[in-house]
Amino acid sequence: MNEEVKVKRTRRRYDEAFRREAVALVESTGRPLSEIATQLGITHWNLRDWMPIYGKRSTPAQLEARVQRLEQENARLRDQRDALKKAMGILAEPSGNASRS
Predict the structure, then answer these.
(1) In Å, how far from its chain's centre is CA 24?
(2) pTM over 0.90
(3) For residue 49, is it left (φ>0), alpha (ψ between -120 and 50) or beta?
(4) In CA terms, which of 16, 73, 86, 93 is 20 to 30 Å from 55?
(5) Residues 6+ away with beta carbon under 8 Å from 19
(6) pLDDT tens digits for range 40-69
(7) Where are the domains of the chain?
(8) Cβ–Cβ < 8 Å for 37, 44
(9) Strand ranges (E), 1-101
């Protein structure tokens, strides 16, 4: 029998300081992610995932817009929850037309 041996890759862990420095390098140089990732010995996928977490590109206006959108969504969800509570309350009340024994 010809069996293939699968080598399990170990997952590399990077500390927060390394991640922050890598993202800062991308932001300060403006060079492509893939180029910097190759230079640092990481994948461009890692660097891409770290950008929104450790990056400084979010402006106060973007953050304010996001907060406003989330507050609107929160209000909509509260309204839906309240409507469901009322519906459950109506269904749970005994009907006045039901025959009583």
Answers:
(1) 21
(2) no
(3) alpha
(4) 73
(5) 50, 53, 54
(6) 999 999 999 999 888 876 667 767 888 899
(7) 13-57, 58-92
(8) yes
(9) none
